[in-house]
Amino acid sequence: MGLKVVWTDLAIENLQLIYKYYRDEVNIATAQKIANAIVDKTILLETNAEIGQREELLKNRKKEFRYLIEGNYKVIYWKELKVVFIAAVFDTRQNPKKILKIK
Prior knowledge:
It is a single chain. The chain is an alpha+beta fold. Helix content is 32%, strand content 27%. Helix 1 packs antiparallel against helix 2. It is globular, with a radius of gyration of 13 Å. The two termini are 26 Å apart. The model has no long low-confidence stretch (mean pLDDT 95).
């Protein structure tokens, strides 16, 4: 299909915070492994944007938000034409209602 994957500012910030947390609390190797796994998961979206399940907490939005799971994280995204936008990277250990803050 040849879709382009674009990360929003919020998603980039989420990924940076995840990386920094693991770098500071564990080590750089673990931080890189987790961040790379999250980014690698989004590569799947280049060929099939419908691979993820619909995000039920965001079902009343104009955009159809979907998500992929990587470890403890949900990669939340939506598709417009030939572009997949990564909206956020959400830690599933948080209160799920925090997802509602995603725009």
